[in-house]
Structure to design on (189 residues):
């Protein structure tokens, strides 16, 4: 049995591709508004809350849509989105693991035939896109907040960099992470 299959992702719901893309695009737009509001807020508390909201929205909304976008560019088709806990629970320490197994992460279900017909490089790019996006996009937002002078943003940017590095490292070392899937695809080419 595949060790990655031993840990099954908890799925709470399914969404159509159109609904999932709309939800994520709306979250990304809302994150941009929140980030912009953090720069012009008259209260430090509001500025910090808006900055944090932006980062969380980008973290949750950039992953699955990056899989979908890159997958579509390389010819992979998708059936639907899932809403459920993390697909990489082993990448988190026990306390956070329990939380991340229950958070509403979006996943995207590939169409089997298009995955079989895609080149190993195309599949690896699609698998790598999600975690790469969820590490880089929110970190860029934290950097923008810092460069825009949002209160507490320099400290938050440092947190965001360490969170992104942790995300990338845990995904790289995990057997069930997207990078492991990309490496397996490339190893079988």
């Amino acid at each position: 049995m595949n060790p990655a299959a031993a840990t099954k992702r908890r799925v709470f719901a399914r969404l159509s591709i159109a609904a999932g893309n709309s939800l994520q695009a709306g979250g990304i737009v809302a994150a941009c508004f929140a980030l912009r509001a953090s720069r012009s807020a008259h209260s430090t508390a509001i500025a910090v809350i808006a900055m944090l909201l932006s980062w969380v929205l980008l973290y949750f909304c950039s992953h699955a849509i990056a899989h979908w976008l890159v997958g579509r560019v390389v010819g992979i088709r998708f059936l639907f989105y899932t809403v459920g806990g993390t697909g990489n629970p082993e990448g988190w320490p026990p306390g956070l693991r329990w939380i991340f197994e229950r958070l509403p992460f979006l996943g995207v279900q590939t169409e089997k035939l298009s995955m079989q017909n895609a080149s190993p490089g195309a599949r690896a790019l699609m698998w790598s896109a999600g975690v790469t996006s969820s590490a880089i996009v929110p970190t860029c937002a934290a950097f923008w907040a810092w460069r825009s002078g949002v209160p507490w943003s320099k400290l938050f940017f440092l947190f965001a960099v360490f969170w992104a590095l942790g995300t990338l490292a845990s995904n790289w070392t995990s057997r069930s992470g997207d990078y492991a899937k990309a490496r397996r695809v490339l190893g079988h080419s």
The chain has one domain: 3-187. Residues 3-187 form one domain.
